[in-house]
Design brief:
This protein is mainly α. The protein contains 14 helices and four strands.
């Protein structure tokens, strides 16, 4: 992927904020992104750390219809359920740390006060901070379903995990479009999408990046509209890519479903893949 960062989609850790903010965003990033080789040895996950028993237990949970085999659609559906469970659990830490008056919710003032700790740096970063503050105020208004001026544990997940809240996902997708759409025509070219359009940026688009763009470009127009960008921002593009590869490896009889036995047999082949990391996170969440 070269030295240019890929568009972060829903795993963006936006700015260096408070411990509570960072905890929630880092947890989100870990849930969908494979750890890099540069991670500290103590926090790196061993590539073959899932046991046969853990895989069988996970398969039982993923097999939502109890048929004995799981399809890609079932794995994606289970992944969506897990996002909501993880979000509901993680925001309890945010609520504990940011709820200054201990009324069981976070007010806009409490959230903005926490943002004051974010490092604004130079003028460009200050402008970015102002834009980020405005976006967070809009997100707060959307998350505040009962319009009482505070977000409780039921409303907070949508603020920090936009992909589980339709209105929040629409807002963040629109914000991403506005940031990347250099010519302001409402569409993203491959260069705009991969953030290679800034002055002096001579990085080319890799074959992998071009292939991902073409998969997102459902109407083959050569550009991405909001609905196509939404698939990236929601994490569904990444999830489907990961689970399609899981099925290609594990579904040995090519019937479109993976049994527990097939999943166990593919344990070594799946080690280190994106799908494997999803499985690791789910096993940890369920304390298997």
């Amino acid at each position: 992927e070269g030295s240019r960062s890929r568009p972060p989609g829903r795993v963006a850790i936006l700015m260096a904020g408070s411990n509570a903010m960072r905890t929630c965003w880092v947890a989100l990033a870990l849930f969908v992104a494979r750890p890099s080789a540069a991670q500290d040895h103590d926090t790196a996950i061993e590539p073959d750390s899932l046991t046969d028993e853990q895989l069988r237990a996970l398969h039982l949970k993923i097999d939502l219809d109890g048929s004995g085999g799981v399809s890609v659609d079932e794995v994606i559906q289970y992944s969506d359920l897990m996002r909501k469970e993880v979000a509901s659990k993680d925001v309890l830490n945010v609520l504990r740390d940011l709820d200054g008056n201990k009324d069981g919710g976070i007010s806009l003032e409490e959230m903005l006060k926490d943002m004051e700790h974010w490092d604004q740096g130079d003028e460009a970063n200050k402008n970015e901070f102002v834009a980020r503050r405005n976006l967070e105020e809009q997100k707060f208004a959307i998350a505040d379903a009962d319009k009482n001026g505070r977000l409780d544990k039921e409303e907070l997940p949508g603020l920090y995990y936009p992909e589980i809240h339709a209105g929040m996902l629409d807002l963040t997708t629109k914000s991403t479009m506005e940031q990347k759409d250099i010519d302001k025509n409402g569409f993203l070219t491959p260069k705009e999408f991969w953030e290679g359009s800034s002055e002096g940026d001579q990085l080319g688009i890799s074959p992998e990046e071009q292939a991902d763009f073409e998969k997102l470009d459902k109407d083959s127009s050569g550009t991405l509209d909001l609905s196509e960008l939404r698939a990236w921002e929601s994490g569904h593009f990444h999830a489907k890519e990961a689970f399609d590869k899981l099925m290609a490896v594990a579904d040995t009889d090519r019937d479109g479903h993976t049994t527990a036995a097939e999943l166990v047999a593919a344990r070594s082949a799946l080690a280190g893949t994106d799908a494997h990391y999803h499985l690791l996170e789910w096993a940890e969440h369920h304390e298997l």
